């Protein structure tokens, strides 16, 4: 197969939106992805909400600006996104979550993020050991010297991979691949074309291809046991924490502390009521256990303190050559 064989339906009028959503609601789960200009960042804009049935037999591309400007009701689409009954399968849904929330005030509920599932599977399914985790961080991101000098700095930190790399590592795709021109455009931060109308067939096909590839990954993960029933609820909970992490944060497109490839799995186990510590780097509300902490005696009492930036942000600061974090904050 090739990219031309991925079919889709573009919705740019409100007439059939409700019918499409009814069809999607009947699917065991749906595949979700978004496209737009600098999604989830300051000055970003949402162009397409792309949703497919469980095996991508049907792929709907909802043209958000055209539907909104035409006065069409897309409320049924919001009901699907926030439904706790219909599971949404995504790949790194952090920026998509922010984009939809910022545009419409609607949060995405009941998510399985396959990027999270891939990371979690390394230990609980594939038996990856600590040395393998550190080797991945060293060889693919930080360099061996940085990891060797102070491995404790990397405690609990995992390096996530992108969708294409996961497809390549698992020899998946069935001959279908992302359009290299559009991929290069994204890497060059030239995403403004997503707001042009009419959208080209090349861009629409690219968006639909992402949904198809999501279906391939989900099927493979299920067959490999990475989404087995005993852990699926936990992965869903972790995914929800992951995609909503930057909620309320003013994300800068080229900022040092923007959403990146590092995941602290401790954060994904956090209860909402523990998210009370604001990181001075990413500005996210986090639990204390994702910071470096210390206990100091002050007179007759002891105080627990944390560094002002979380572990992930301090690692990113070091990689970018910023000054070390020496500011301690009382917990």
Automatic annotation (TrEMBL):
Out of the domains of life, which is the source? Answer: Eukaryota
Q: Name one GO molecular function term.
A: nucleic acid binding
Domain 3'-5' exonuclease: residue ranges: 12-145
In the record, biological process GO terms are:
nucleobase-containing compound metabolic process
**Which Pfam family name is an example for this entry?**
DNA_pol_A_exo1
| Xref: InterPro entries | 3'-5'_exonuclease_dom, RNaseH-like_sf, RNaseH_sf
PANTHER family in UniProt: RIBONUCLEASE D
Record-given protein name: 3'-5' exonuclease domain-containing protein
């Amino acid at each position: 197969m090739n990219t031309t064989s991925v079919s889709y339906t573009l919705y740019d009028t409100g007439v059939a939106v409700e019918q499409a959503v009814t069809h999607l609601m009947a699917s065991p789960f749906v595949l979700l992805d978004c496209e737009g200009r600098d999604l989830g960042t300051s000055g970003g804009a949402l162009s397409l909400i792309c949703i497919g049935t469980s095996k991508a037999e049907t792929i709907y591309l909802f043209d958000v600006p055209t539907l909104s400007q035409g006065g069409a009701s897309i409320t049924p689409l919001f009901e699907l996104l926030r439904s706790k009954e219909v599971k949404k399968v995504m790949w790194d849904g952090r920026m998509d979550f922010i984009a939809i929330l910022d545009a419409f005030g609607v949060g995405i509920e009941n998510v399985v993020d396959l990027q999270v599932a891939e990371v979690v599977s390394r230990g609980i399914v594939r038996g990856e050991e600590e040395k393998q985790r550190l080797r991945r961080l060293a060889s693919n991101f930080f360099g061996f010297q940085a990891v060797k000098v102070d491995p404790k700095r990397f405690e609990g930190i995992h390096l996530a991979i992108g969708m294409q790399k996961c497809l390549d590592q698992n020899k998946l795709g069935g001959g279908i691949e992302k359009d290299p021109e559009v991929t290069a455009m994204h890497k060059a931060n030239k995403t403004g074309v997503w707001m042009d109308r009419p959208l080209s067939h090349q861009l629409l096909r690219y968006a639909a291809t992402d949904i198809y590839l999501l279906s391939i990954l989900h099927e493979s993960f299920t067959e490999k046991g990475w989404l087995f029933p005993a852990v699926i609820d936990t992965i869903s909970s972790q995914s929800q924490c992951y995609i909503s992490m930057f909620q309320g944060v003013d994300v800068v497109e080229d900022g040092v502390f923007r959403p990146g490839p590092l995941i602290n799995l401790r954060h994904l186990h956090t209860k909402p009521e523990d998210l009370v510590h604001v990181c001075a780097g990413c500005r996210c509300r986090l639990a204390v256990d994702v910071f470096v902490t210390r206990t100091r005696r002050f007179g007759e009492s002891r105080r627990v303190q944390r560094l002002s930036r979380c572990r992930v942000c301090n690692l990113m600061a070091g990689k970018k050559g910023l000054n070390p974090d020496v500011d301690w904050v009382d917990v």
